[in-house]
Design brief:
This protein has one domain. 62% of the residues lie in helices and 0% in strands. The chain has helices spanning 16-29, 36-48, 50-57, 60-65, 76-92. It is globular and about 35 Å long. Bound molecules: zinc ion.
Length: 93
């Protein structure tokens, strides 16, 4: 039986490896503030990648972290929920 292939190429000119890298970094956002250079890289990817952009739009709280604005810390429940969403999305790539 051939291995299951899920969405080998979401869109042209953009590799799923990049998406996975971004999603993993998003996961890191939840616990730590990322350096601004990494934030820029992620946002650049979001601009070029409809899949990730859609995903992040649903995670506004995460995006807010990247703006270095003063926001209230996320609850453990919210973090757990977002992390689940990220892992689910990563599994679909
Ligand atoms: Zn992507």
């Amino acid at each position: 039986m051939p291995p299951r292939r899920r969405g080998a190429h979401p869109h042209p000119g953009h590799s799923k490896a990049q998406c996975l890298k971004v999603l993993r970094r998003l996961s890191a956002y939840l616990d730590h503030e990322l350096p601004i250079s990494v934030c820029r890289e992620i946002r650049k990817h979001m601009g070029a990648c409809p899949n990730c952009e859609d995903f992040v739009t649903s995670l506004r709280q995460t995006v807010r972290l990247c703006r270095h604005a003063k926001i209230p810390p996320m609850s453990a429940t919210a973090k757990a929920r977002i992390r689940r969403e990220i892992h689910k999305a990563a599994g679909l790539l």
